[in-house]
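Please decode residue identities from the backbone states below.
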């Protein structure tokens, strides 16, 4: 059974940084594209970053230049370094272990964890 566990969320002021982590077990992590999406109240789900099994990365325009995704296949972990955080980054962040379209930032429905909350305050 696949398990996805996110961590690292919290409360941060605008301009601050957070680093999210995700641990995936139960599947050959190195063989899959993995990534992050977020969901804010009243807004649509937004794919924000994905990294393929071979390394290429993709970012939503809203986070490009501020967020950096990385993976450690030896530990089956995924990270998201978030810098220069803005109020609009406030959301629940989810790690997804399957993607219908990594480049297009479309996660496969249901293949994600419980999420970690990121709140950015002024």
């Amino acid at each position: 059974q696949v398990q996805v566990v996110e961590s690292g969320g919290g409360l941060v002021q605008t301009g601050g940084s957070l680093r999210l982590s995700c641990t995936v077990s139960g599947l050959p992590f190195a063989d899959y594209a993995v990534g992050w999406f977020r969901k804010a109240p009243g807004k649509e789900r937004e794919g924000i970053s994905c990294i393929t099994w071979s390394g290429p990365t993709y970012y939503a325009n809203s986070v490009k230049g501020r967020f950096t995704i990385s993976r450690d296949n030896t530990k089956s972990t995924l990270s998201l370094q978030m810098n220069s955080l803005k109020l609009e980054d406030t959301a629940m962040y989810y790690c997804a272990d399957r993607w219908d379209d990594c480049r297009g930032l479309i996660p496969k429905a249901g293949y994600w964890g419980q999420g970690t909350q990121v709140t950015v305050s002024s």
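Observation: Residues 26 and 75 are 12 Å apart (CA to CA).
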